[in-house]
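Researcher: For the record, we're logging two predictions in this thread. I'll number them. Prediction 1 follows.
Model: Prediction 1, sequence and structure:
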Amino acid sequence: MNDDSPEVRIVMVDDHALCRNGLTDLIAHRSRMRVVASTGDPGQALGLVQAHQPDLLVLDLRMPASDGLVLLRHLRAEGVTAPAVILTMSDAQDDLAGALRAGVRGYLLKDMEPEDVLASLARAARGELVVAPAMTLKLAQMLQQGPGGADKPDLIASLTERERQILQHLSRGESNKTIARALDISHDTVKLHVRHILSKLNLSSRVEAAVYAVEHRAGAAPGNITDLPPRHRGGN
């Protein structure tokens, strides 16, 4: 991250003290990131988040008192909007799918190299969608096996050219600000287009839109989308 970038404040929830302390110490040596609070008790998470107003949540997936995704849904219901990254030992495809459906910003594995975890957290804080390299193939397989694929090209074709451009950027996990700069349009215009995209594709989150775009680029690696199926002539 650039030296002039704002500090990324992190709240971490993980029942393993070794993991909490290890990541806290690791992040402490990265000047623009800081764990402002951590706990092994999911029941304390809401209070910590409300007290510290973090820029990023780092959540374990499997905890005795609560599932990380159940906790995330609870936080969202309480108005918490900070993006969340799952940091877990689970490399199960179903867990990855559930996390993406829940709208997480990232899915990382605890056996990743420490520097890779740090780099991924920094990218997530910038608005990118991050997935552990070991999970990339599973993500592709999950998408290829997804139901209802035959109907989706027609839905893609319902998008305008500008919406298709923005969907391509969403597929790379880019934030609205990044997309606005790339396309030389306003942040509010991007937000409006994203709402239209979600409505036309019957989706509920930008993460779903990113996954949706990946699903319709056969042979492309997730997060590296450069094209989408052509629109029908005469579309809006």
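Researcher: Logged. Prediction 2.
Model: Prediction 2, sequence and structure:
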Amino acid sequence: MPAASIRSTMRSRRRAMAEINVVPYIDVMLVLLVIFMVTAPLVTPSVINLPSVGNAALAQPAPPITLNIHANGQLSISYQNGGKMREDTLSKAELENFLQKQQALAPDQPVVIAADKNIQYQTVISVMSDLKTWGIKRVGLYVQASK
């Protein structure tokens, strides 16, 4: 019988030893908290001298040029000219010429592709590739929100 009681006391000691004592970790965290609270007011914020803008006018972004790809594959563009919206049907050569002139005037003007939903995806990719070849940097796609 004494051997059985020794085994039971050893089992209880093993169980007790398996528990992690978190009190030392809490003590360390409280000491770190006190250190940070004492040193935080001593840190001086750095001063940065920034240039002033003055009375500079904000540049208005150019409205995007919309490149429409119709169901029959025809290309047309919609753009603002003198505050009025215009829409022109162009061939690829005319489109390239027009877009390069517009990019020379406003290099950051975006071109947004609005393709008919029945157009093959390859046609849209081909037009996007042409735009990249022509040096157009900002190209986007119009999408219609689902209802």
